[in-house]
Design the sequence.
């Protein structure tokens, strides 16, 4: 099982289990995970992005070589972010990056974001966008962070066929049938994790709206209970081949696309 | 020794292949307790956000998903149609009638909970009598945004609940950007509960912001924390058990808008003893409903 959406270190507003990398790895292994794509909670608020990524890479190497796959953070609104992207790929050997546009204060129509996507596509580096991190109703009242509006992606993705894009925590748009969202869900190079996919029959709906080959197992652990994603797959009533594709086959294919 | 990126990627893909061979033989483990181990009763369910056109069709969908995760029984309440913050008596009656149609279709899989609009006390009492005293329903709620639940308008309804020994499920939230008009908080519910120490209140969603909701109800012993309808944020159930005791925590899902999976995960994934999980997933609810079920000759 490949978990494409886990987080290292401390959530800013609460201690959660597994916020020590060694402990996180032990917990994930016990749950049957064989590989975890890990971002860093530090990336949400820290502006020394290079330091965030170096600590992430070190922790993944020390505590989970071959198990924790580090996804560095890039903030295209800080100076010289291009160097951070270069270091992610060339120094840290990262296969992907994870973006937090709402925490970094830009929309997906921002030219800096377009440039970042284009550079990532050219470098064949995977891009994960965390469209949200938590329910806005439950956020710390002094720090409201609305979810990311994905609509501009509808125009960007078709122009970048080499891009490999993963949308994390996209559940809040479930049932949205606006043309922009439909275009995104139908794009062949856009993938979706299931961490915030909700409702009875939610996973079956997500697969129907996207594709059996573009839905990924992602838990948003340890912020969320890991078992949420696990039980979603177990209770979806999927054919065995689709179930295994969600658990890991699709993630494996995506890895091959960036290799 | 530092590896180059291509070597790293190749090893990841190879590792995944090896893992796939293992996982292909057996689905991933560690949530095995979710199948059949516990008797799961769900305090909080609706017929909303489901694809069927009738209560019976929607209930069939719910039962299919209940079976996949071993949910034995639902407590079903309003919500077939659009959310109505201030429903008319006719709308309230329609909602309850739809619930009773679903119950009739699956009598072994659900009990009903009567929907009321406390703004209209006289009608609420009549509807309680129709659906609970003289009908098949076994609890009150989910009461939603009609009027804040600390209002004196709820007192006659609570007295009726006490007379039949049925619990009351009250919607509560503490929203970061402020609640809707007349939307209740756990603080409002505590006020009501303190006026009626003999009644049993279930704090729906535990205020959503559960770190506050748990504290708000902590010293009011006749208020139970209910975990439905929020993201499966880790630590929720552990804190509730630590501060309230497992005896005061109740599982609910808030399906169909939420999934059984995400909501059961809060309990299945919590680092608490199995004995506590048993209480939360159904034991506490069966104890609360015991008197009314017995009085009605229903199974518990």
Sequence:
């Amino acid at each position: 099982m490949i978990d494409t959406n886990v987080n290292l270190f401390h959530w800013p507003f609460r201690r959660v289990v597994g916020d020590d990398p060694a402990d996180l790895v032990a917990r994930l292994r016990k749950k049957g995970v064989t590989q975890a794509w890990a971002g860093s909670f530090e990336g949400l608020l820290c502006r020394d992005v290079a330091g965030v990524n170096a600590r992430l890479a070190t922790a993944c190497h020390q505590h989970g070589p071959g198990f924790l796959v580090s996804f560095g953070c890039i903030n295209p609104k800080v100076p010289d972010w291009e160097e951070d992207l270069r270091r992610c790929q060339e120094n840290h050997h990262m296969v992907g990056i994870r973006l937090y546009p709402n925490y970094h204060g830009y929309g997906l129509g921002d030219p800096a974001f377009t440039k970042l996507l284009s550079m990532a596509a050219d470098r064949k580096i995977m891009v994960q966008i965390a469209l949200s991190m938590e329910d806005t109703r439950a956020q710390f009242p002094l720090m409201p962070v609305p979810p990311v509006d994905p609509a501009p992606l509808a125009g960007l993705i078709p122009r970048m066929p080499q891009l490999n894009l993963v949308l994390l925590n996209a559940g809040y748009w479930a049932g949205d049938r606006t043309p922009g969202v439909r275009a995104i869900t139908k794009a062949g190079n856009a993938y979706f994790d299931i961490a915030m996919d909700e409702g009875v029959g939610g996973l079956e709906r997500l697969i129907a709206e996207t594709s059996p080959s573009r839905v990924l197992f992602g838990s948003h652990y340890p912020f969320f209970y890991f078992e949420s994603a696990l039980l979603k797959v177990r209770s979806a009533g999927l054919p065995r081949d689709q179930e295994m594709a969600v658990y890991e086959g699709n993630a494996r294919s995506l890895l091959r696309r960036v290799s | 020794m530092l590896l180059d990126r291509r070597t790293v990627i190749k090893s990841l893909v190879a590792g995944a292949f090896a893992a796939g061979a293992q996982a292909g033989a057996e689905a991933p483990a560690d949530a095995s307790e979710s199948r059949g181990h516990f008797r799961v009763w769900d305090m909080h369910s609706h017929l909303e956000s489901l694809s069927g056109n009738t209560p019976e069709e929607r209930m069939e969908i719910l039962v299919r998903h209940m079976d996949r995760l071993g949910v034995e029984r639902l407590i079903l309440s309003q919500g077939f149609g659009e959310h109505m913050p201030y429903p008319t008596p006719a709308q309230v009656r329609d909602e309850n009638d739809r619930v009773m149609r679903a119950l009739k279709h699956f009598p072994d899989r659900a009990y009903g909970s009567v929907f009321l609009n406390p703004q209209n006390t006289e009608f609420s009492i009549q509807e309680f009598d129709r659906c609970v005293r003289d009908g098949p329903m076994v609890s009150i709620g989910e009461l939603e945004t009609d009027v804040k639940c600390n209002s004196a308008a709820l007192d006659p309804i609570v007295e009726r609940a006490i007379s039949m020994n049925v619990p009351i499920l009250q919607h509560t939230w503490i929203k970061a950007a402020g609640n809707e008009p007349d939307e209740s908080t756990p603080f409002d519910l505590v006020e009501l509960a303190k006026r009626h120490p003999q009644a049993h209140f279930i704090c729906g969603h535990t205020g959503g912001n559960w770190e506050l909701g748990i504290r708000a109800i902590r010293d009011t012993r006749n208020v139970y924390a209910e975990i439905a309808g929020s993201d499966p944020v880790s630590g929720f159930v552990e804190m509730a058990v630590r501060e309230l005791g497992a005896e005061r925590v109740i599982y609910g899902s808030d399906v169909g808008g939420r999934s059984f999976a995400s909501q059961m995960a809060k309990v299945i994934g919590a680092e608490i003893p199995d004995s506590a999980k048993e209480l939360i997933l159904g034991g506490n609810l069966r104890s609360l409903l015991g008197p009314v079920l017995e009085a009605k000759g229903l199974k518990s």
The two ends of chain B are 63 Å apart (CA to CA). Strands of chain B lie at 40-45, 71-76, 110-114, 139-143, 168-171, 201-204, 223-226, 249-250. Residues 11-29, 32-36 of chain B have pLDDT under 50 and may be disordered.
